[in-house]
Amino acid sequence: MTVPSGRRERKKAATRQKIADSALRLFLERGYDAVGIREVAAEADVAVTTLFSHFASKEALVFEQDEDFEKRLTQAVTRRAPHEPLIPALRHEIQALVRHCTADSAAPIWRMVDESPALRKYEESMRLRHAETLATAIADDPELSQTATASRTIARFVIDAYSLAREAADPEAAVDEIFRMIEAAWEVTCPSRRV
Questions:
Q1: Coil, helix or strand for 158?
Q2: Are 85 and 195 within 8 A, CB to CB?
Q3: Largest CB tally within 10 Å, which of 39, 78, 90, 107?
Q4: If phi over 0 gives left and psi between -120 and 50 gives alpha, with beta otherwise, what is residue 31?
Q5: Using the 8-state DSSP alphabet, how is residue 141 labeled?
Q6: Residue 39, C-beta contacts closer than 8 angstroms, at least 6 positions apart
């Protein structure tokens, strides 16, 4: 998570983290569906309106690093050095996310997500949003000069790489295998450039 610089921003970030930690603790102890928003707010010692000023929905409490991940993916495109290849930069971000999400401490959270239709639906909509944001960043990069269709396709492949690798028996090997295919697809869209 990005560390805020000002005192007010740090306080807001600390409140947000306290809410997310309280929610996750309650969800894992009692089950996602058994815990209400008011209970999360009470556990975090904040008003319900404060909770909703930090999180748009109950589902968002589970995916509290969603915005940070989306920002990191976009920055993998926009903050590349001139002529730095795109696909390795995206691969680096996906590898980091897969490592984070396949750590032993994350297993109970993913079991909870897998058991909840609401969380699975939210995760799917989140992935689609990430793919669209990433596609826009790719399409807007003049050095890459890709069509909207090519940008959206590569972005979807990258986002799906995370999901597929997270579920694989060997996540690191899965990232390697998937990104070889993504690199091949990228080369088809820009044969005059290296990946």
A1: helix
A2: yes
A3: 90
A4: left
A5: -
A6: 26
Rounded to whole angstroms, the Cα distance separating 75 from 18 reads 27
pLDDT in tens, the chain (195 residues): 555 668 888 898 899 999 999 999 999 999 999 999 999 999 999 999 999 999 999 999 998 888 888 999 999 999 988 888 899 999 999 998 888 888 888 888 888 998 899 999 999 999 999 999 999 999 988 777 778 888 999 999 999 998 899 888 899 999 999 999 999 988 887 644 444
Quote the pTM value: 0.82
Judge whether 22 and 43 are in contact, CB under 8 Å.
yes
Q: H helices within the chain, ranges in order?
A: 7-30, 37-44, 48-54, 58-62, 66-78, 86-101, 107-115, 117-140, 148-167, 171-189
How many residues are given for the chain? Answer: 195
C-alpha span between 99 and 120 (Å, rounded): 20
Nearest to 74 by CA among 148, 140, 1: 140
Q: Letter for the amino acid at 178?
A: I
